[in-house]
């Protein structure tokens, strides 16, 4: 049985779904969210858990025969950054402690494409050295710290650490007004019949549809063997705002979206995650391009609020 913490969140839920589709048994944890997505209803075991409670975390191993751990649970920073770091570090260390105590095969932890910020390349791959630079968000700062903590905590334990450098993920269950990615609010405005604020046509970069991201994580969790400990998780393709506008106009009769010419920052290309390592080691390839993801998401939102 595979444990997915934060398994009712967007990435966690799609990871759980992909694991189920691969024939795995899955237990997910949730802290504040209680609604089980329709695609998981009746298919997973749901365990309420505050991941900062070490005893409660370890007790899961007495109730379930857990073979692998995917730690995706996390919080949103408040006013005090120390409180945020304390909370999420406690959850991470408890997940790593549990993985060691249970003797699981593999423990995957969530990092971020943000760890590459400061690199001048546009194709970000795992062999790049991570720069020391000012980061735009506390979550990225924490994710950058996750990597050495996970690698060193599991060293010599027999548990394989897998660091997931997760890209910009969106899709079913994303916050429709997400402060982290402007495309969901843009689409939400169109779905309300409003005219969204014009975007620069050639701005863009990395993104991946949530079902694809979940499948990538599931493949990394279940692969018979992995040649590496760090993997980018995304589509491996850069998008532009023009791609999203064209996709929305294609499926919405009469819709005309205005775009600003070029890029806000002038000529150039926005960075994206290279997934050659992920593909080589798991066979992963994204099932959704921008047009397919937009059509699927709009159909989902017709029946679901997020």
UniProtKB/TrEMBL annotation:
Pfam families: Epimerase
SUPFAM superfamilies listed in its UniProt record: NAD(P)-binding Rossmann-fold domains
Family designation: Belongs to the NAD(P)-dependent epimerase/dehydratase family.
PANTHER family membership: DTDP-D-GLUCOSE 4,6-DEHYDRATASE-RELATED
Organism expressing this protein natively: Kribbella capetownensis
Residues covered by the NAD-dependent epimerase/dehydratase domain: 2-233
Protein name: NAD(P)-dependent oxidoreductase
């Amino acid at each position: 049985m595979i444990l997915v913490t934060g398994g009712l969140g967007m990435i966690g839920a799609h990871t759980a779904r992909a694991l189920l589709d691969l024939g795995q048994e899955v237990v997910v944890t949730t802290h504040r969210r209680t609604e089980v997505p329709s695609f998981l209803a009746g298919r997973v075991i749901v365990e309420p858990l505050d991941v900062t409670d070490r005893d409660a975390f370890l007790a899961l191993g007495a109730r379930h025969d857990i073979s692998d751990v995917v730690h995706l649970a996390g919080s949103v920073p408040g006013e005090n950054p120390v409180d945020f770091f304390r909370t999420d570090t406690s959850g991470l260390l408890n997940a790593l402690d549990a993985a060691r105590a249970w003797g699981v095969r593999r423990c995957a932890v969530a990092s971020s494409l943000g760890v590459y910020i400061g690199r001048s390349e546009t194709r970000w791959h795992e062999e790049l050295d991570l720069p020391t630079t000012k980061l735009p968000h506390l979550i990225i700062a924490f994710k950058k710290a996750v990597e050495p903590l996970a690698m060193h905590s599991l060293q010599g334990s027999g548990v394989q650490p897998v660091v997931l450098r997760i890209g910009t993920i969106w899709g079913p269950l994303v916050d429709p007004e997400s402060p982290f990615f402007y495309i969901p609010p843009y689409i939400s405005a169109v779905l309300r019949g409003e005219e969204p604020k014009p975007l620069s046509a050639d701005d863009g970069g990395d993104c991946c549809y949530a079902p694809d991201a979940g499948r990538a994580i599931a493949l990394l969790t279940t692969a018979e063997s992995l040649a590496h400990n760090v993997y980018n998780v995304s589509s491996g393709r850069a998008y532009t705002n023009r791609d999203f506008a064209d996709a929305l106009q294609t499926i919405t009769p009469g819709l005309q979206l205005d775009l600003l010419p070029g890029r806000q920052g002038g000529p150039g290309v926005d960075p994206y995650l290279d997934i050659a390592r992920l593909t080589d080691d798991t066979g992963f390839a994204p099932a959704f391009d921008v047009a397919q993801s937009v059509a699927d998401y709009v159909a989902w939102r017709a029946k679901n609020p997020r």
